[in-house]
Amino acid sequence: MKRYRLIMWAILGVLTAASAAGAGDFDGSKPLLVSVNRVIECTPDGACEEISIESVGLPRFLRIDFAKKTISRATGDDKRPATAIERQEVVDGKLILQGAEDGYAKMRDGLGWTLAISEATGQVVLTASGEQVAFVVFGASIPF
């Protein structure tokens, strides 16, 4: 859904190819580089389908800055503001990040999101939900 492009790039972008990393790399103490590998869109009728990363306006690589509590495009050349990380907690070996985005002015396109990062592997699963739509994004992360 095109109206979700502005917020999806920041929210769903916490994903990248994992590499061998030491303990503590995925506990929120180091910035992470992330890339999106797969996006699935679901609607209330129970239909879920894999969609292209580009169709939701998501960049392939993003940066999580735990010190600033933000998620942004990794390239740094984007004029859009970073997404704020509103909550951060470790649960059962996963670093959980949460937030919400309002989207475009005068549109009912806001989303709430939760991002789970495995502290053992850096694998990432992000869920985002809005009005009559939900997204599941898979990927992985590496220290940046």
Notes on the protein architecture:
The chain is built from 1 helix and 10 strands, in the order αββββββββββ. It is mainly β and 144 residues long. The protein has one domain (2-75, 83-143). A hairpin with a 4-residue loop joins strand 3 and strand 4 (70-73).
Task: Summarize the structure in short.
Helix content is 5%, strand content 46%. It has one helix at 5-11; strands at 32-42, 48-51, 61-65, 70-73, 83-84, 87-91, 94-101, 111-118, 123-130, 133-143.
Topology overview:
Blueprint: H1 5-11, E1 32-42, E2 48-51, E3 61-65, E4 70-73, E5 83-84, E6 87-91, E7 94-101, E8 111-118, E9 123-130, E10 133-143
Antiparallel strand pairs: 1-2, 1-3, 1-10, 3-4, 4-5, 6-7, 7-8, 8-9, 9-10
Mean pLDDT figure: 82
Assembly of the depicted chains: single chain
**Number of DSSP strands?**
10
As a whole number of angstroms, the C-alpha radius of gyration is 14 Å
Structural domain tally: 1
Give the helix tally.
1
Which structural class do you get from the secondary structure elements?
mainly beta
N-to-C order of helices and strands: HEEEEEEEEEE
Low-confidence runs of at least 5 consecutive residues? 12-21
- What is the makeup of the main sheet? 10 strands, antiparallel
Distance between the termini: 31 Å
Q: What proportion of the residues is helical, as a percent range?
A: under 10%
The shape is: globular
Residues in β-strands, percent: over 45%
